[in-house]
């Protein structure tokens, strides 16, 4: 018996052997896994990945599809919509964002005044430099989402890396936000970055939205699912 899986066999399986709902799910999962493998190849500059690296990509995609947290940006989560200048954003951050927050796993995260940099971004360098010309109103409007995602989302990814010769661990708290309009709904990924120091203390770093599905996949590619002990 021939167990070799050829592109022709896979195409035949997806074309007619599966029920429509399963067919569509398989397409989405296979596509996302292939994109993760592609981004890993690019990052590592490796033409051929090891089998365990490809398997890890499949596990990452499974985590993404089974844990993603979704919320609608309405009510208090939409309180900053409309015109929201820098001064109002600063006031809201200091009044409603700063402080301690308990995440969905019961861990304490500190949101310090340094986190205010998250609403600023230099156009050409991408650095978070506090200056009025760098204020991004869209970030100010999404300030209410930060605590909400930290408290509710279990779609959390862990990234361990060496930066400047030092070990660094960060966590990506993720969600899909739907913003309802009169005639449509806008969907976007929302990511909150939290760092962990050598003593295990957690601190908010920044938060941002991602409009592109593929960009989100490239962002989580270096990570592993966070599974608390």
Beta strand count = 8
- Looking at the structure, what is the overall shape? globular
Proportion in β-strands: 15-25%
Specify the structural class.
alpha+beta
Total separate domains: 2
Helix-strand string:
HHHEHEEHHEEEEHE
Termini gap: 43 Å
Which residues form runs of ≥5 with pLDDT under 50? none
Provide the gyration radius in Å.
20 Å
Write a short abstract of this structure.
With 229 residues, the protein is an alpha+beta fold. Helix content is 38%, strand content 25%.
Relevant terms:
229 residues, alpha+beta, 2 domains, 8-stranded mixed beta sheet, 8 strands, 38% helix
Written description of the protein model:
- This protein is α+β, with helices and mostly antiparallel strands and 229 residues long.
- It is globular, with a radius of gyration of 20 Å.
- The protein is built from seven helices and eight strands; from the N terminus they run H-H-H-E-H-E-E-H-H-E-E-E-E-H-E.
- Strands 1, 2, 3, 4, 5, 6, 7 and 8 form an eight-stranded mixed beta sheet that branches.
- The mean pLDDT is 90.
- The protein has two domains: 8-67, no CATH class; 70-225, no CATH class.
Strand-helix topology:
Elements: H1 7-17, H2 20-44, H3 51-67, E1 70-72, H4 86-97, E2 99-102, E3 108-111, H5 137-141, H6 143-152, E4 156-163, E5 166-180, E6 185-196, E7 202-210, H7 213-220, E8 224-225
Parallel strand pairs: 1-5, 3-7
Antiparallel strand pairs: 2-3, 4-5, 4-8, 5-6, 6-7
Helix pairs in contact: 2-3, 2-7, 4-6
């Amino acid at each position: 018996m021939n167990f070799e899986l050829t592109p022709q066999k896979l195409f035949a399986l997806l074309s007619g052997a599966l029920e429509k709902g399963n067919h569509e799910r398989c397409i989405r999962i296979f596509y996302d896994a292939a994109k993760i493998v592609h981004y890993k190849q690019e990052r590592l500059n490796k033409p051929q990945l090891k089998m365990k690296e490809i398997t890890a990509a499949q596990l990452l995609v499974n985590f993404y599809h089974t844990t993603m947290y979704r919320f609608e940006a309405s009510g208090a989560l939409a309180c900053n919509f409309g015109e929201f200048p820098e001064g109002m954003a600063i006031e809201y951050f200091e009044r409603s964002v700063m402080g301690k927050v308990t995440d969905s796993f019961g861990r304490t995260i500190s949101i310090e005044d340094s986190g205010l940099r998250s609403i600023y971004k230099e156009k050409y360098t991408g650095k978070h430099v506090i200056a009025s010309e760098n204020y991004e109103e869209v970030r100010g409007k999404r300030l209410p989402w930060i605590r909400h995602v930290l408290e509710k989302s279990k779609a959390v990814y862990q990234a361990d890396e060496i930066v400047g010769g030092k070990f660094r661990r960060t966590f990506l708290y993720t969600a899909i936000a739907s913003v309802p309009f009169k005639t449509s709904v806008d969907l976007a990924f929302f990511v909150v970055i939290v760092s962990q120091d050598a003593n295990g203390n957690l601190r908010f770093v920044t938060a941002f939205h991602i409009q592109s599905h593929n960009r989100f996949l490239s962002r989580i590619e270096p990570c592993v699912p966070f599974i608390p002990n």
